[in-house]
Amino acid sequence: LAKTTQPISMDSYEGQEVNITCSHNNIATNDYITWYQQFPSQGPRFIIQGYKTKVTNEVASLFIPADRKSSTLSLPRVSLSDTAVYYCLVGALLGGANNLFFGTGTRLTVIP
Amino acid sequence: DAGVIQSPRHEVTEMGQEVTLRCKPISGHDYLFWYRQTMMRGLELLIYFNNNVPIDDSGMPEDRFSAKMPNASFSTLKIQPSEPRDSAVYFCASSLSSDASVGQETQYFGPGTRLLVL
Q1: Distances in Å between the alpha carbon of A64 and those of A48, A105, A112?
Q2: What angle (nearest 5°) sits at the alpha carbon of residue B116, between those of residues B115 and B118?
Q3: If you average pLDDT over residues B68-87, what whole number do you get?
Q4: A64 pLDDT exceeds 90?
Q5: Are A20 and A73 contacting, i.e. CB atoms less than 8 angstroms apart?
Q6: Pick from B10-19, B21-30, B57-66, B84-93: least confident
């Protein structure tokens, strides 16, 4: 079971880069790493997904070391609207329902 | 596209009553997921369907919980009888099929149903 561990909360000032790290020591060969963002009273929203090395899109970067036992979501120049809970999801449908584990996420607060 | 639609958005009921939550996935998506979110346990996957067939319900907490997907555009999650500890936000999500050897596809979540069992 690829459970994940993330910091419960983080604070950052506007304009700074934020890095949120997720530990997943039991990640399986087939598992992908996906990050979601959730605002209050809304469902989670996909941010980025990767398998290894580095992935970048228009909103974030995802760094995955060679052993894949952790991953880091990087948000460049955060704004107040980035205040949300961020989830690291590790798993694949091959393993069944219990192989998709969201955890409790990291609550990011961006300060003016 | 309207996205994933869930109803009701809020439900308040008394212990012992039957509760039915509804979900309409994004058209064309062939995976449908039901999640439960609480402060203590975070976001938990309860069950998922592929092409209307339940694939894995090992996340369903008890026999009081059941889920159906009679067609590609509709699914229900039923709790009977409901208990106060079932109070949570229930999310439905859908995704396109993927090559199983590649990994999971992006899931699109609905707005959730906030359930309070008194």
Answers
A1: 12, 18, 30
A2: 150
A3: 97
A4: yes
A5: yes
A6: B57-66
- Across the interface, which of A41, A97, A101 has its CB nearest the CB of B48? A97
Quick one: which of A48, A26, A44, A24 has its CA closest to A35?
A48
User: Where residue B102 falls among pLDDT bands split at 50, 70, 90?
Assistant: very low
Interface of A with B in 34-63 (CB under 8 A): 34, 41-46, 49, 51
Q: Convert chain B into a string of H (helix), E (strand) and C (coil).
A: CCCCEEECCEEEECCCCCEEEEEECCCCCCEEEEEEEECCCEEEEEEEEECCEEEECCCCCCCCEEEEEEECCEEEEEECCCCHHHCEEEEEEEECCCCCCCCCCCCEECCCEEEEEC
